[in-house]
Structures are given as structure tokens and as C-alpha cells.
Design brief:
The protein is an all-alpha fold and 181 residues long. The protein has a domain of 106 residues: AhpD-like (Up-down Bundle), CATH 1.20.1290.10. The protein has nine helices and no strands. Helix 4 packs antiparallel against helix 5, helix 4 packs across helix 9 and helix 7 packs antiparallel against helix 8. The model has no long low-confidence stretch (mean pLDDT 96).
């Protein structure tokens, strides 16, 4: 059971209902973590705005999902691992790739560098080395791409924290977290 109220049509005010209806129309569902976000329409609108803009960037959907999977696993957010396993599959990632992403890498050499960089950003609170930035550039990522990777790290940390703090019920096919060995 969620430790933060899940907003639905039964307990939503007018503004919350409008936001939930817009999400339903766009996605065909309203994921539970967005129902938690809906406690603050301002926070929900901010997240949706950033998410929408970040989705228009130069990073391909597969790389965005690879980053999300790596961070969800690293940050131990079962909701986000489950959600991004489903979303990643729809984006074209196969089971072996999803497993590689959760382990912090990729079967695609260029994407592996982005995933590694994303994990380092999260682990070190942005204190990455010049060598890490050079590695990302040498893999073919532009300055724009690097800023987008950083943006996706921030968005995923936000959703990982929300998922863990709320303990929101997983409404995607549930994927168990892997424990560190």
C-alpha cells in the first residue's frame, strides 16, 4: 500500500481530474506513480513538462530506457525497474539487453558508454571526471547529448525517489530487484 495518497477520480479535485484525464488520453492509462505526483498538480505538471521536452531530444528512446533501467536498479526502485522493463520492451529492448542495462551496461557499445556515464553521474552526484566526459565524447555523443543524459539522470532519480518514498503499488508486470552480491 502506498505511503503517500494515490489520487484517482474518487478523491481528485477538478485540477487533478483534468491532469489525470489528459494522461489517460495520452497513455491509455495513468501509472500509479503519476497518481502520487498528482497530490501536487504543480509537481505533476513540472514532471510532465520536463519529461515531454526530454523525450524530444537527440537521445533515442532505447538509450533513454537503458539509462532508466540502470538507475532504477542502482537506486533499488522496484516500481521503476518494473515500469522501465515494460516500457523498454515496447521501445525494442530485448531481455538480454534489459538485463545488461540493469547491470549498468549495454550490448550496444555506444549505449554502454552512456549507461556507464549515467550511473557515474548518479553515484557521484554529478562529480564525474574529465576522463569520463572524454569517453562519452569519444563514443560519439555531442554536448547536447551529454546534457540530455544528465537531464535523464535527474528525471530518473526523481522518479526513483518518489517510487521508493511512497512505496507506490507496482501497476506494471512486477520485476524483482536484484540484490547486490
Amino acid at each position: 500500500m502506498s505511503r503517500i495518497t494515490v489520487i484517482d477520480h474518487n478523491n481528485a479535485d477538478t485540477e487533478q481530474k483534468e491532469l489525470l484525464d489528459a494522461i489517460q488520453a495520452q497513455l491509455g492509462m495513468v501509472p500509479n506513480f503519476l497518481k502520487v505526483f498528482a497530490n501536487s498538480p504543480t509537481a505533476l505538471k513540472a514532471f510532465l513538462g520536463l519529461h515531454g521536452i526530454a523525450g524530444e531530444g537527440s537521445l533515442d528512446p532505447q538509450t533513454r530506457e537503458r539509462i532508466a533501467l540502470a538507475l532504477a536498479q542502482q537506486n533499488a526502485c522496484e516500481y521503476c525497474v518494473s515500469a522501465h522493463t515494460a516500457i523498454g520492451s515496447k521501445a525494442g529492448l530485448n531481455g538480454a539487453e534489459i538485463e545488461a542495462n540493469r547491470a549498468g551496461t549495454s550490448q550496444d557499445a555506444k549505449a554502454a558508454v552512456a549507461v556507464k556515464f549515467a550511473k557515474s553521474l548518479a553515484e557521484h552526484n554529478g562529480e564525474v571526471t574529465t576522463g569520463e566526459l572524454i569517453e562519452v565524447r569519444n563514443a560519439g555523443y555531442s554536448e547536447s547529448d551529454i546534457v540530455e543524459i544528465i537531464t535523464h539522470v535527474g528525471m530518473n532519480i526523481l522518479t526513483n525517489i518518489l517510487g521508493k518514498a511512497s512505496r507506490v503499488e507496482v501497476d506494471f508486470p512486477k520485476v524483482e530487484l536484484k540484490l547486490a552480491s
